[in-house]
Amino acid sequence: MYIKEFEIRWNDIDANRHLANKAYIEFAAHTRMSFLSERGFDRRLLGKFNIGPVVFYEHIYYFKEVFYGRPIKVSLEISGLSEDGMFFEFRHNYYDHKGRNFAQCEMMGAWMDLQTRKLIPLPEEIRKFLSDVEFPEDFKTLTKEDTRKFNKKPKDLG
């Protein structure tokens, strides 16, 4: 499991003086990119293949409040990945300075070709950066159907 430590900044606090929900999303995204970059899967490599990540959803479950003034830790596990690497699912847990779990985030996404704006399999040269990752016990090989598990569809006005 990968863990990143953060200082809660003044602009991470909301009107209730606890950690704002936008900060949870930002800490999770920063943790993911740090994890990938430390493995060599960085902006340069994404630029070489002209691809970028696309987020399908991020669900956050809040267990306790957390406040300004103490560091927090955010973990990362790859909880799902399709065989071709197109689809991915990350799980983040948030821990206070005493190691108590105060929130969890589940995020699913895919890779997109930035020119065609279509979803694509992760190129083999990049997939190798994930070959030695230790997956959690509940790891799942994802399919396109998994991306539709909440059965949400757009409903236009009019």
What does this structure look like?
This protein is of the alpha+beta class. The protein is 18% helix and 34% strand. It contains three helices and six strands. The chain has helices at 21-38, 43-49, 124-127, and strands at residues 2-6, 51-62, 72-82, 87-95, 101-113, 140-142. Strands 1, 2, 3, 4, 5 and 6 form a six-stranded mixed β-sheet that branches. The mean pLDDT is 94.
Q: How would you summarize the topology of this molecule?
A:
Blueprint: E1 2-6, H1 21-38, H2 43-49, E2 51-62, E3 72-82, E4 87-95, E5 101-113, H3 124-127, E6 140-142
Parallel strand pairs: 3-6
Antiparallel strand pairs: 1-3, 2-5, 3-4, 4-5
Structural class: alpha+beta
- What radius of gyration results from the CA coordinates? 17 Å
Beta-strand content bin: 25-35%
Our count of helices gives: 3
Q: What number is the mean pLDDT?
A: 94
Residue share in helix: 10-25%
Strand count, sense and barrel status of the largest sheet are: 6 strands, mixed
The coarse overall form would be globular
Following the backbone from N to C, one meets helices and strands in this order, namely EHHEEEEHE
Cα distance spanning the termini: 47 Å
Give the total of beta strands. 6
Which residue ranges are poorly predicted, with pLDDT under 50 across at least 5 consecutive positions?
A: none
